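Lecture notes, unit on protein representations.

Consider one protein chain, 511 amino acids long.
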Amino acid sequence: MLKNNKIFKTSDLQKLDKYTIENEPVTSLDLMERAATVFTEKLLIFFPNNHIFNILAGFGNNGGDGYVVARLLLKKGLNVKVFGLHGNSVLSPDCAVNRKRFIDMGGCYIEVKNPDNLQPDENSVLVDAIFGAGLNRPVTGFLGNVIHRINCLSHPVVAIDIPSGLMGEDNGENNGAIVKADYTFTFQFPKLAFMFPENVVYVGHWDVLDIRLHPAILREYPAAYYYLTEEVVASRLLIPEKFSHKGTLGNTLLIAGSYPMMGAAVLAAKGAIRSGTGLLSMHVPCKLKEVIHLSVPEALVEVDRNEFCFSGVDNLSRFQAVGIGPGIGTSPVTAEGIRQLLSVWQGKVVLDADALNLLASNSGLLELLPKGAVLTPHPKEFERLAGKSVNDFDRLNKLSTFARLHQVYVVLKGAHTIIATPEGECYFNMTGNPGMAKGGAGDVLTGIIAALLASGHSPLDAAVIGVYAHGLAGDLVVEEQGMRGVRAGDIADKLGLVWKKMETYNMAKQR
């Protein structure tokens, strides 16, 4: 299983820190020093020419981190000022110690009693150290007003670990104030909130800083959320053996296209043919077969009885995996064809686009899905399957519940595409870019996953590898021609380079 790169809930943070403190062993003050040191190093990489830093320090350990950062910057001879935002709150022990250390070495400290008195230096970088990841209630009142003031300033803002006011998982009906950071440097692992599109305005660009929490607790402590990296994904990719041939690398059946939407079939075919399947068979309406012959000559073509839409498949015995959905339409004839298909096919399958819309609108089809089926909805398609969501965290819970209930893998497409498993785990993809938000990109993904299934990958590996490779191909396109010019076909064309990159990475790791 893919167990690297966990995302822990913020409620677990104290346990991770406590284990590290007791078993390294290290004092809590030294752990704070370590975290603030790596933060300061990253801060100066992003702002190497800035000499003025204003730290906004709260009363908890996040504020303590801020005081250490201030002291480290002061030691480097930089212009540093700390605005103490404590109100009547008692400082945490480590925060109190580091506040005293900063003041004792001559640091400039200003206690803010009124939000209007917060007057940052001109041309300064603001460091948000007001609240950390343990926040469990909306920020209102004095500190809420401070945050509103910060958000009205033009200064660049860098958050320590998490933007103040943002909760690590569920913001729910959060009517409180949240810092809008330009950068967030987070400790040890990304926070779940970073993966949700509704939070991008607060998090900005984020990086993970390794503060060397104890490896045993990171390895053994359970998590339900993970993020994908090249190391994790490339290690799952099956490499063909020396004596492999087209018969051993799988025969993929793609059921795609209808009279107005044959482009979707072509794009899915190009995704599959570039992703390692030994044979690709395209099942298309009989009047439209020439489109595939001319566009994807590598594909075998079998025709449907219907002239212009999918109505059923007679023989599935030759195939190792089936992909269905791109451009097939939602006619009653096609719905009945899917019903017949799912009644007899219990092997590997990926369903996308109109196949998902038919699942949502035809009672009983969901119950026919084979265990381990892969579904690849975009948010609106998932809403039709599982109902409306209040926010992104609610959608994540619905996604996990849906995958467990139906024993399927659900690939929810988006900025950080999520793969939900029947076991209740969720994997967040870290490749891809906004240029890929174009018609046809999802069809290419369907072809990729279907080909990976046919060539021997498990449903989880096919989904994880397919999503990561699809996003990486999009990133390669953007490197070459920018975001605006990306086409779905360009993504398929870059897949060869993606597989080469992964194979090269694997070989380098094996040396």
